[in-house]
């Protein structure tokens, strides 16, 4: 500051001016004025400018720090999401494999169950057919036996008279008596 005031004092002693007064040389006065303004600005504005620059620097550093923290959080979330995605993909693959296995198992169970049911139905059908055949055979036997019996009775009653009838009865009784002894 002392240099600035010395320059003002020394300007007053210029030989062309002769004494203290106003300098009307515009170029010389503008340079002096500019240097005075710049000197005052530098001297008084240095602290304000320094504070402004420090604040700006702190805001930039805080912004960078926050950005780094957000970046770190985003990377962490991305890794978690990737881990969850891999886990879900593995579970989906496992469900898919288990689903296919379950479907195949159910298909085989269904085929086996249907095969058993068909075999049982075939057995029931065969048993029903055999039963109906036996029943039909028994009915035919009964009819044949009844017809043979009726025919034999008819033949016997027409051929036998009382004497022949009595001899046949005695012969049968004799055969029965020989069997029981």
Short summary:
InterPro entries: ATP_synth_b/b'su_bac/chlpt. The chain is mainly alpha-helical. It has a domain at 31-135.
What attributes characterize this protein structure?
rod-shaped, mainly alpha
Describe the structure.
With 181 residues, the chain is mostly helical. It has a domain of 105 residues. The protein has three helices and no strands. The protein starts with a helix and ends with a helix. About 4% of the residues have low confidence. GO terms for molecular function: proton transmembrane transporter activity. Keywords: ATP synthesis, CF(0), Coiled coil, Hydrogen ion transport, Ion transport, Membrane, Plastid, Transmembrane, Transmembrane helix, Transport. InterPro entries: ATP_synth_b/b'su_bac/chlpt.
Structural Rg:
67 Å
Principal-axis shape equals rod-shaped
Counting helices, strands and paired strands, the structural category is: mainly alpha
The helix count comes to: 3
List how many beta strands DSSP finds: 0
Biggest pleated-sheet summary: none
Query: Approximately how much beta-strand content do the residues carry?
Result: under 5%
DSSP helix fraction: over 70%
Low-confidence stretches: 7-14
- Helix and strand element order: HHH
Residue-averaged pLDDT: 82
First and last CA, distance: 169 Å
Question: Which helices and strands occur, and which strands form pairs?
Answer:
Layout: H1 2-11, H2 26-159, H3 162-180
Subcellular location: Membrane
GO biological process, one term: proton motive force-driven ATP synthesis
GO molecular function: proton transmembrane transporter activity
């Amino acid at each position: 500051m002392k240099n600035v005031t010395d320059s003002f004092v020394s300007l007053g002693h210029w030989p062309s001016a002769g004494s203290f007064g106003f300098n009307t040389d515009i170029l010389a006065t503008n340079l002096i004025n500019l240097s005075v303004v710049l000197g005052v600005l530098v001297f008084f504005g240095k602290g304000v400018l320094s504070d402004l620059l420090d604040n700006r620097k702190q805001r930039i550093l805080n912004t960078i720090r926050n950005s780094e923290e957000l970046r770190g959080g985003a990377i962490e979330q991305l890794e978690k999401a990737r881990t969850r995605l891999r886990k879900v993909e593995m579970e989906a693959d496992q469900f898919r494999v288990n689903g296919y296995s379950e479907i195949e198992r159910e298909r085989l169970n269904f085929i086996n169950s249907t095969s058993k049911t068909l075999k049982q139905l075939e057995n029931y059908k065969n048993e029903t057919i055999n039963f109906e055949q036996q029943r039909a055979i028994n009915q035919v036997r009964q009819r044949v036996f009844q017809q043979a019996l009726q025919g034999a009775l008819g033949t016997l009653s027409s051929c036998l008279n009382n004497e022949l009838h009595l001899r046949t009865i005695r012969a049968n009784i004799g055969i029965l008596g020989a069997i029981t002894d």
